[in-house]
């Protein structure tokens, strides 16, 4: 192919990850309520493993289309990572909740760092080993797929959405140990009562709602400035 066509294919391979992320994140909220946090995270590993397999075998099959499809599936999994901070925050004790929520961002940055190191030509970034580098994104998904079934479902989900109070208490004891946890259960019940009187807005309704305009501005500004703060360079 010509140089222009190679540039076009490369640009498409890079950018299609974001399209997959948009598709994954748009369905994250529905899946987390429909199937629960734990099952939704398990489902998210399927596109991750599929994408890793497609990209890892692309050179063997001589198909750049497999890289495009693999990047798309990896993006879908990346978009569904919205489950992770929700699940981590809901299963953690109140005194550790803020700390646990921050760790997801720390490990996201750590994952990028490890990927950049592995991408060095002296490691997996060589002409012969790049399929292994592309397929390595399936390793964390495989670990999560094996380990996550041993974790309980989110206690707030069990109580608020599934209506399973006994299951909620069992999950709390498994996560936080034996003891008096009635105060935490009461907090979840209060949140459930509040949610009944709260209308869930779509993205379009959120943008149109004047009451949330300044909060929306703040989120957009913070998200945009994160891209300009130099974290990717670090």
Automatic annotation (TrEMBL):
Membrane topology value: Multi-pass membrane protein
Question: What Pfam families does this protein's entry cite?
Answer: Sugar_tr
* The keyword Transmembrane belongs to this UniProt entry's keyword annotation: yes
Q: Name one GO molecular function term.
A: D-glucose transmembrane transporter activity
Gene Ontology CC: one annotated term: plasma membrane
| Xref: InterPro entries | GLUT, MFS_dom, MFS_sugar_transport-like, MFS_trans_sf
Q: What's the domain of life for this entry? A: Eukaryota
Q: Where is the Major facilitator superfamily (MFS) profile domain?
A: 1-234
Record localization: Membrane
Span-the-membrane segments of this chain are 12-33, 40-60, 66-87, 99-118, 130-151
PANTHER family (alphabetical): MAJOR FACILITATOR SUPERFAMILY (MFS) PROFILE DOMAIN-CONTAINING PROTEIN, SOLUTE CARRIER FAMILY 2
Put simply, this protein is called GTR5 protein
Tell me what gene encodes this: Slc2a5_1
């Amino acid at each position: 192919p010509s140089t222009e066509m190679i540039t076009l294919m490369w640009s498409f391979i890079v950018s299609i990850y974001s399209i997959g992320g948009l598709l994954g994140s748009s369905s994250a909220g529905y899946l987390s309520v429909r199937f629960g946090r734990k099952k939704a995270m398990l489902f998210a590993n399927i596109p991750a493993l599929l994408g890793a397999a497609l990209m890892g075998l692309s050179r063997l099959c001589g198909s750049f289309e497999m890289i495009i499809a693999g990047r798309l599936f990896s993006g879908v999994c990346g978009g569904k990572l919205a489950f992770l901070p929700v699940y981590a925050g809901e299963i953690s004790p109140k005194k550790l909740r803020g700390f646990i929520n921050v760790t997801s961002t720390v490990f996201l940055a750590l994952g990028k760092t490890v990927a950049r190191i592995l991408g060095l030509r002296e490691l997996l970034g060589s002409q012969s080993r790049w399929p292994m580098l592309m397929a390595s994104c399936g390793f964390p998904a495989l670990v999560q797929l094996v380990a996550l079934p041993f974790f309980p479902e989110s206690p707030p989900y069990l109580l608020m959405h599934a209506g399973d109070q006994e299951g909620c208490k069992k999950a709390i004891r498994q996560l936080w140990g034996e003891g008096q946890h009635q105060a935490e259960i009461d907090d979840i019940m209060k949140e459930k009562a509040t949610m009944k009187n709260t209308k869930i807005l779509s993205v379009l309704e959120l943008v149109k709602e004047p009451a949330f305009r300044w909060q929306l501005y703040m989120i957009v500004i913070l998200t945009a400035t994160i891209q300009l703060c130099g974290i990717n360079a670090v």
